[in-house]
Amino acid sequence: MVKNFRHACIIVGNLERSLRFYRDILGLRVSKILTVEGKELQELFNLKKAKLTYAKLYTHGQSRRNPPVFELHYWHIPPRRPKRDFSHISFTVDDLNREYKRLKKAGVRFISGPKKVTYSQSRICFAYDPDRHLIEFIEDCSP
After folding, report:
1. Tens digit of pLDDT for each residue in 91-127?
2. For the chain, which domains are there?
3. How far is CA 9 from the centre of its chain?
4. Alpha carbon distance, N-terminus to C-terminus of the chain
5. Contact 101, 125 (CB under 8 A)
6. In 3-state terms, what secondary structure has residue 24?
7. Can you give the pTM of this predicted structure?
């Protein structure tokens, strides 16, 4: 039986560019950035050669006592490129209009502006990260 959700990870094409987006623009906090290579990583992924740099990220509302829930992976060897075959990553915000304006001004590409949805008590909009992963921003509007 699964005990708890641990984390989600996306592969990025340029770690610094992705950190500028997730850390500097969205405001996630970096727990650590680590480069690993060698036999242990090769055995874990069944590869002849392997080198990976990854960043572990927290949201501002997440306790540091818990493991970070989001990771960015950049594979040096073998080179792996971002794939957009998952649905999306979702973040909760307090004021969607304010975040939409702030992120748009920072150059984030949106599919649409904030919309109230009839199937839940929330407002939603979708954007892209630098690798064109789909990002959802949600403001809870329940009374």
Report:
1. 889 999 999 999 999 999 999 899 988 778 889 999 9
2. 1-83 (3.10.180.10), 84-143 (3.10.180.10)
3. 7
4. 35
5. no
6. helix
7. 0.82
Per-residue pLDDT at 43: 87
The tokens describing 21, both together, are 């987006």
Quote the tokens at residue 108.
Answer: 């984030």
Q: Burial code of 75-111, b = ≥16 C-beta within 10 A, e = fewer?
A: beeeeeebeeeeeeeeeebeebeebbeebeeeebeee
Structure tokens belonging to residue 93:
């915000």
Residue 88 Cα distances to 1, 58, 125, 126, angstroms: 25, 18, 12, 9
Q: Which residue ranges of the chain lie beneath pLDDT 50?
A: 2
Query: What are 22's two structure tokens?
Result: 């997730």
* Bridge partner residues of 36 (DSSP): 52
Amino acid at 134: L
